[in-house]
Write a structure and sequence with these properties.
Blueprint lengths: L3 E5 L3 H13 L3 E5 L2 H10 L4 E5 L7 H11 L4 E5 L4 H9 L4 E4 L4 H19 L3 E3 L2 E4 L4 E4 L2 E2 L4 H12 L5 E2 H9 L8 H13 L2 H4 L2 E4 L3 E4 L2
Parallel strand pairs: 1-2, 1-3, 3-4, 4-5
Antiparallel strand pairs: 6-7, 7-8, 8-9, 10-12, 11-12
Helix pairs in contact: 2-3, 6-7, 6-8
This protein binds calcium ion (CA).
């Protein structure tokens, strides 16, 4: 079923452009031209993504975001003309998932939309995800863009640990304990071997997110 996107944008030509592009990508698009109308729609109908301009008549995008977020966990992407830190912080504080600075390339907008949709579909399925990687702990299966990865049990455990702790450094001790168990007799250089296997099984653009932290361990850093 087509994903439903609510676009709240007062500049009619931009709204029209976004509508055409998203419709072309098979999304079901609804447009609102001011903050009040956008808020009403977001509160009364169900959408998969909310695309929200910041500078809007009646009610600005940050305020719409704040109010929607009180009752809904719909992914919210802000469109902002001003790439200022204050705007970004205000938007993220108000509960936005991401923001995109105008003028933007349509490919970038589509990529951001796909990313938030991937995140929510992963949460629905109780998957742990990192970029295009999704790990289903219960099923012992990892995926890259929905394609199953062929991993051994050890490689799977290692990937799960790194994805669960994304952006946090996992020390060698933590990795040994989590993957091989407390009383394991394995040498820590075994970790390096398995990291190498894991990197080799991931596509290049994803494998480089597994960073070596010299003398400490590894981190999956976005
Ligand atoms: Ca505007």
């Amino acid at each position: 079923m087509a994903k439903k996107i609510l676009v709240v944008e007062d500049e009619k030509n931009i709204a029209r452009f976004i509508e055409l592009e998203l419709t072309h990508e098979q999304f079901d698009v609804t447009i609102a031209y001011d903050g009040r109308a956008g808020l009403d729609l977001a509160m009364t109908e169900s959408f998969d993504v909310l695309l929200l301009d910041v500078m809007l008549p009646d009610l600005n995008g940050i305020e719409v975001c704040r109010r929607v977020r009180k009752t809904s966990d719909i992914p919210i992407l802000l469109l902002t003309a001003r790439d200022t830190v204050t705007d970004r912080v205000a938007g993220l504080d108000a509960g936005a998932d991401d923001y995109i600075v105008k003028p933007f390339a349509i490919e970038e907008l589509l990529a951001r939309i796909r990313a938030v949709l991937r995140r929510t579909s992963a949460e629905e399925k109780n998957l742990t995800s990192f970029k295009e990687i999704a790990v289903d702990e219960a099923a012992f299966q990892a995926y890259v863009e929905e394609e199953p990865l062929q991993l051994t049990k050890t490689e799977f455990d290692l990937l799960l640990l790194l994805v669960k702790n994304q952006n946090l450094v996992c020390t060698r001790e933590q990795i040994l304990t989590a993957v091989w168990g407390y009383d394991s007799e394995v040498e820590t250089n075994v970790i390096d071997v398995y990291i190498r296997h894991l990197r080799a099984k991931l596509p290049d653009h994803l494998s480089h997110y597994i960073e070596t932290v010299r003398g400490v361990g590894y981190v999956m850093r976005s």
